[in-house]
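Predict structure. Chain length: 297.
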Amino acid sequence: MTAATVPGGAVIALDAAAETLPALGPTGRALPVLASPAPLDRHGPARVLAMVNQKGGVGKTTSTINLGAALAEHGRRVLLVDFDPQGALSVGLGVNPLQLDRTVYNLLMERDVAVDDVMLKTNIAGLDLLPSNIDLSAAEVQLVTEVAREQTLERLLRPIVADYDFVLIDCQPSLGLLTVNALTAAHGVIIPLECEYFALRGVALLMQTLDKIKERLNPRLEVEGILATMYDGRTVHGRQVLERLLSAFGELVFHTVINRTVRFPETSVAGEPITSYASSSAGAAAYRQLALEVLAR
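Prediction complete.
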């Protein structure tokens, strides 16, 4: 048995007969071998994960939908929470926000509304949705006068976490009160980050906000990982941003990298995850790999 050093300085044992290095992933690190998880005998309690980045257009909604669908493929019960007044998560799952009688807004602001009154079943087995529309924008103002306003979402989710394995919260592109609510309710944060310079600059501010939330409101909050999205390895700029991301955050960066592809906009129009719309595509494979990483963390 011999050993070799891979990028990053890790020493990996080699089979003397094969003398081959493990395959390197798009981040330049050795890809972990992740087995499919065993089936569950029972569900819950859920791990609550917030998709957060104050910059818009970085892939938060796309990642929430497709990670949720990939986790559901592994037999996990997943609840998606659309916590963005734009309602993109709902639209991405084929729901017309303008035709909804009740949404997350009603759940937040009306005491007689229960989760079951708002929840919708999706076309994906094991994947449920709490939808949203523009009404939610009013909650940002109305919650200001509430007692313990930062814990409102956590209180609403508390009765149902036992029924799910994962709750994924799609946050709006800001660090306002709605996002603070999501972070207070969450166990972990996934930060989708477009491989672009301005997106990289905003991560430092986001990390400061996460530290404040952890110190003052939610001691259990951890960064689950940083997900590089919209990556184009053909451009020098894309490769440089990914290298800087790895240099700054190391093992916090997921091995999975989401490449740019026209398939993702197509799935939004179709109103379904890429795992069902284009099941054999590279994008579907990437989110299935991400699901394995999340399950392993």
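Summary: The chain has one domain: 45-296.
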